[in-house]
Amino acid sequence: MAILFTVSAFALSVVLYPFIGETKFLLFFISLTLSAWIGGVRPGILAAALSIFCVDFFLDEPRYQLFDDPVQSINFLMFFVVAALISWLEQRRLDRERELRDARNQLARLYEQSQELTAIEERQRLARELHDSVNQTLFTISALAESAIRRWDTDRNRAYDLLKQSHALTVTALAEMRVLMLELRSASLAKIEFKQLLIQFVDSFKSRGTFSIDARIDDVPPLPPQVQIGLYRIVQEAFNNIFKHSGATQAELLVINTPTTLELTIRDNGCGFEVDNAHQTDGLGIGIMRERARDIRANCAIDSALEQGTTISVVWRKPTSVTQTEAVNQANKVNEANNDI
After folding, report:
1. What percentage of the chain exceeds 90 in pLDDT?
2. What is the CA radius of gyration of the chain?
3. Which CATH number do you get for residue 339?
4. What angle do CA 257, 262, 264 make, to 5 degrees?
5. Residues 102 and 197 both lie in one domain
6. Tens digit of pLDDT for each residue in 92-121?
7. Which of these three, 106, 129, 147, is where a domain ends?
8. Which of 17, 313, 334, 341 is least enclosed, having the fewest CB within 10 Å?
9. Total structural domains in the chain?
10. Looking at the structure, do residues 223 and 92 belong to the same domain, yes or no?
11. What is the pairing mode between strands 261-268 and 250-257?
12. Residues near 40 by Cβ (< 8 Å), separated by ≥ 6?
């Protein structure tokens, strides 16, 4: 590389020598700068040495002699010092670029590992859900059906009641399985309307009968996939906390769609906790919810106190593209309504 650039500079100097005269060093200076910029110190120093040799041996008078003029030798020394400095600076730049590239690669690997860990944790959670809810529900259905068969000939009314209970539990199990199947494929969570996705999730929780849920959900326009999945995971984590830790009898899910924001609130009347000490309780998933909100650039606020319930508020600010899409959709709806009239 250094040899190629220097030979090119020498050839141009020979051709242009009658026109450039004493400015011939400029071509060699460009060649050594390019060599250092691409290769660092060694190519730069080599290009400087070759440039001095070509100028002193082939171009300067008397030709085919080296360092016969003390003044010119000083010029060559200054040229070499400047070349060495440029080569050193370019080497520093190359080293920094290499370090940045290595850091980016390491961050990419760490991100992939974190994604894999998240997927493993999600599978483990789904396995627990299957064992804790669906598996127990199916076992109860089996016991009720078996009892109904034994009572069919002696007490059909009681057998009929048992079958009704089995049917209700079957509906519950189907609702829970539907949600779990969606969660097994994260991409599927983004293909369903956000409102419908939350309704399905709330219905699966209502079927457990542990606490009542008041859900008020605005119509929401299509969201970026990562935002929809992130908000859904926050709702999921919050309701799992209510179910496992709060002892609440009532919960509320409120989703408000404004022109510039999407506001999500989950509130319960459970035992609450001290927010300042939440980091000491890994099971509450507070850090997970805040991290998911941060990943989608949303604000997450958690307000709770002992025996006063918990309120989780998430506000996602819509980018300009989403707000413009909503404005166009709203205008289309108005035009359609006017046409109908």
Report:
1. 25
2. 37
3. 3.30.565.10
4. 100
5. no
6. 888 999 999 999 999 888 888 887 777 777
7. 106
8. 341
9. 2
10. no
11. antiparallel
12. 87, 90, 91, 94
